[in-house]
Design goal:
Elements (H helix, E strand, L loop, with lengths): L1 H25 L4 E5 L8 E5 L3 E6 L4 E5 L8 H27 L9 H38 L10 E2 L1 H33 L9 H14 L2
Antiparallel strand pairs: 1-2, 1-5, 2-3, 3-4
Length: 219
């Protein structure tokens, strides 16, 4: 019962991680630049994401521009696009697989089949967490290196936006959920691997003696 409750807790973590992963992929505020200027009326906030760049004015106007050209983007943005999409796909696969393999569901067949299915879902969550953690770390490194570079003007420097923090938290949720699913299935099989079922072996001499007694009865 405790293992089923732990699996349900891991499933909820994975569900929040998957939704956060999708939100971080689509949000335009991966890095933010606030330019106040000489007057508060002319203050603007520039946000850049994986798929679009947006500008918010203090007057309430909001405009976005899509990034159509892929080859013109920096390498870290191209890699972030690819890995974040893979993370979303793997987390969706993991949710579907673990739904079948969890103990609290009546799908997936016998206990051994559900255990193997649950382990496969946990591996998907771990891979999704890794694919989500790599681009957020790389993106944050680029933002910090550009911010500390003295040759770059202050107007071109940015800070990490909310999408980066959502990506970090979602990757952590997916990693924790994947580890819980994998270890819960491993603990279940560990006893069978260490203590295999004992088989009864009868000595061959005893079988021969019994055969001899049977032959004597017919003499």
């Amino acid at each position: 019962m405790a293992s089923a409750g732990l699996q349900f807790f891991a499933f909820m973590l994975a569900l929040f991680g998957a939704f956060g992963d999708i939100a971080a992929t689509l949000l335009p505020n991966w890095k933010v630049n606030a330019d106040v200027g000489s007057n508060i009326i002319t203050a603007i906030t520039q946000m850049q994401g994986l798929w679009m760049d947006c500008t918010w004015y203090s007057t309430g106007m909001f405009s976005c521009t899509l990034k159509y050209s892929v080859l013109s983007l920096p390498v870290y943005i191209q890699a972030a696009r690819t890995t974040m999409v893979l993370s979303c796909i793997l987390s969706a696969f993991g949710i579907c697989i673990t739904t079948v393999g969890m103990k609290c569901t009546k799908l997936g067949g016998d206990t051994d089949s559900k255990s193997h299915t649950c382990f496969a879902g946990g591996v998907c969550f771990v891979l999704a967490g890794i694919f989500g953690l790599v681009p957020t770390s790389w993106y944050t490194r680029e933002i910090i290196s550009n911010f500390l570079d003295q040759t770059i003007p202050e107007s071109s420097k940015h800070e990490p936006g909310g999408a980066v923090y959502i990506g970090f938290i979602s990757a952590g949720f997916l990693l924790v959920a994947g580890v819980i699913f994998c270890t819960s299935c491993f603990k279940k099989q560990q006893g069978a691997w260490i203590y295999p079922p004992k088989q009864q072996h009868f000595p061959s001499t005893q079988q021969e003696n019994n055969a001899g007694y049977n032959l004597k009865d017919y003499v």
